[in-house]
Amino acid sequence: MPHESRRAAREAAQKQHAAREADAERADARERKQRRARRVRITWITVAVLFILGLAAACWVGFRALAVKDGLEQSQQLIGELQSGADVTATVEKISGHAESAADAAADPVWAVLEWVPAIGDNLRGVRLAAQSLDVLVNDVGMPVLADGGSDGGSLITKVLEVTKRQSARVAQLADEISAVKESSALIGPVRSGVDQVAEVMGAAAPAVELLPVLLGAEGPRNYLLVFQNNAETLALGGSAAAQTLVHVDNGAITMGSQGSSASYQNGVAVDIPVDQSALDLYSSYLVDHLNTSMSRPDFPTAAKIMRAWWQRDIAPDDIDAVISIDPLALSRMLVATGPITLATGDVLSADNATALLLSDVYRRWDSYAHPELVDGFFAAAAGAVFQQVASGQFDLKNMAIALSESAAQGSVLVWSEDEKVTEAIAGQRISGILPTDNSEATTIGVYFNNSNGSKIDYYTRGSITADAVCEAGTGTFTVNAGLSLPLTQEETEALPRYVQSMTFGTTFRDWIYIYGPPGTTVSNVAVNGERVDVLQQGIDDLGRPTVRFEAWFEAGDQVDVTASFTGAGDFGPLAVQTNPMIHPTVPAITNTCR
């Protein structure tokens, strides 16, 4: 083949090869483009599906959230009606349905998944826990207690015992969980408000539900010493220790045991119990060698240990798990819940007459100097009758809760126990009978009127308290004025039974007024107003506080006033005043605060 022909053939072959390669490259390009297009379509389809699913989930949870919101709001409205006096059983039944629907809506699995989403997750978790907490308290605790029937035919005490044993772990778990989510910074306003409210309720409910089985003897029998104080002879914690009863509790069964009164003890012989020297300096040996004055120091653990020692030495060496103090002011509130009670004497004890009957009329009926056992016995019988009614479960639950709550807040019910769980549960509350040890939450001043004349005149006396706080440049000055008056005429005072008059001074009376300043301060000024008013002691540190002790003599129509100021450096909470639970309540007037 000629040379030219061979070259032409090669060139033709090369062109054909190039054409084939070009065709292959174009085919590859088309295939790559198609693959990219498929991937884009898949991606967009996936995104679209996820978006649609997310939107659907959000809408679904949104609808569920509206259901939860509606259930919680309806429940909150009904709780308000309950607090305003609505029928307990009927209202709780209504709350039950709303609480259950809210909890069911928040238990949705989609809701649970979205709780893991940042920012919104804690809000959803908080709403769920609030709904579940309300549901458990209402439907698993409240409704079974209020329901008719029960293992013993309907005993309220037994039902409370059974329910709290069954639900204590669940309530404690929810309390811990909602307390944890409460700390989240992601909570939005409405959610935070609701979570805070429910967390506070659960924080109080959890220890109560946990402790009730123990206190009711589910884990073994327990003995409680009940001390009944007489506010007609006022002392710092309420009044003289008029009567005592041992209460035995075993698996929900409550029985009244031995009783004691002033005549049952070796007065004048001190009980062997360690007491701070500062307490003896302020209150003398009478704090430990005379039963009736054991309530003089404003510290219930001190009084409770002294009372327990008196009982174990002079009555019986019983194991005593706790000491509970109560006064006629609390009994009168409890009688709203129990209804009137007929005593063995034929007297009908009611909320309307309890205070007058126990703290005044009884002294006109019997001469307590001639027959002290009759007066003390009547007092103990009245208190015992109320507690028998409570022990049998024959009372209105809502009114009893109100009575105990109000009485605890006023200092008319006090509790002490060496059980650490009990101590922790009541720590920081008035029911513990312990003054605050710092000023972080409040700067508390204690003002206490102590009857020191052996009379029962405090059925008639009136107290008044004003307090003022000024904080400048890191220094706080706290001034408190305490007044005491006897709004009777001389003729009225002379007509009083001799046991109501002063045992030593007749129609002249003496009070020791104690003022406890805030922790971290010192006494900066004292003043008195009255011809027979003096400063007896000042600057003694007791219970971690500077104190001033005044002596005030008064007669019919008199008004005596004492003033003390305290100064110190530091950060002080809002000013507060704590005082005796008196027959005629003393409401402190606080005119200024540091916060």
TrEMBL record:
<protein>
    <recommendedName>
        <fullName>DUF4012 domain-containing protein</fullName>
    </recommendedName>
</protein>
<feature type="transmembrane region" description="Helical">
    <location>
        <begin position="42"/>
        <end position="63"/>
    </location>
</feature>
<feature type="compositionally biased region" description="Basic and acidic residues">
    <location>
        <begin position="1"/>
        <end position="31"/>
    </location>
</feature>
<dbReference type="InterPro" id="IPR025101">
    <property type="entry name" value="DUF4012"/>
</dbReference>
<keyword id="KW-0812">Transmembrane</keyword>
<keyword id="KW-0472">Membrane</keyword>
<keyword id="KW-1133">Transmembrane helix</keyword>
<feature type="region of interest" description="Disordered">
    <location>
        <begin position="1"/>
        <end position="32"/>
    </location>
</feature>
<dbReference type="Pfam" id="PF13196">
    <property type="entry name" value="DUF4012"/>
</dbReference>
